[in-house]
Every structure is written in structure tokens, then in C-alpha cells.
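SAMPLE LOG
Freezer: B-3
Tube label: C17
Construct: single chain, 143 aa
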Amino acid sequence: MRLLPALQRLALLAALGCSACAAAHRNALLGVWRSDAERTLVSMRATAGIPEERRRALADDYYGHLTLEYAADTVRARFDDGAYDSGERPYRIVDAARDRVVTDEWNELLRQFERTTTYLDGDCIYGLAAEYGYREYFCRVPR
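STRUCTURE (predicted):
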């Protein structure tokens, strides 16, 4: 039957297409990302359960100064005033989808990989703040 080989080719093309889609999402983190204080603070203000004192402290020029630089297999975080530079730390993609990338990133202090989920939102990415769950945004820095 000629139908079976045609169906097999279609299934193979569909599988390759899905693989290509996943590869594109896997590369979604590549580039330089800058902390977006405005978007982060909007999310923080909309999140219940954050003590007012903590909310004020975080709103007082805390966000907007961190830059993340993702290369193929390393990530670097640094503050614009030079007070912190993580150096290049290894990371690996664990899973990728249209709206998120899950990575294992090296934590030098703990000397182990930590699982991190980064959500994709247009030209921005965000992670969920550990203690309160609001979105901490980073937006792509144009080249």
C-alpha cells in the first residue's frame, strides 16, 4: 500500500517539526536580559500576603539593576553597580515549551544544580519570587 509510507512520512515530518519547535524554545533564553522594575512591581502589588514593610523595601530601588546573560550553556548574573557578579555558571535545559523553559542552574554557594522555571512573555521572561510568588520580570536588551 502506498498510503502507509505516506502516513509514515507525515508522522516523521510532524515529529521533526515538533523537535524543531522544542529546539527553538530551548534557545529562547539566549541573550541579555535586564531586570524590569516596573513590571515586577506591578506583579508584586497585585500579590496578596506580602507584609507592607517588605513591600516598601522591595519597591525602594531594589529591582531594575540586575542583568542576566544566557549563552549556550552558561548564565551570568550581575548588578549594574558591580556589587555582584556571579561569573559564568553552567546551566542545562531540562524541558522547554511554548511558554516556559526549565533549567538546572549551578548554585556556587550550595555547590549543586537547582531547578528553575523561567516563563516566556513576549520580549520578557519572568520567574516566580520564592517567598511570595509574584513575577520578577527581565526584558531582552536589544543588540
